[in-house]
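Exercise 4. Each item below gives a protein and its sequence. For each, produce the structure-token representation.

Item: Menaquinone biosynthetic enzyme (Streptomyces pristinaespiralis).
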Amino acid sequence: MPVVEIRAVSNAVGPRDRAAWRIGEALAALREAFQQLAPVLQEQP
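Answer:
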């Protein structure tokens, strides 16, 4: 069974500073990646 995993980075490595996390931007990047990838995946048999 083929599998695809898409990841985005929301925070830098280092001390945990939740105020600096960019979760919204990471989610937006995932949405954009999926929108571009979805048509290609639908073409697969």
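Check: The chain has a mean pLDDT of 90.
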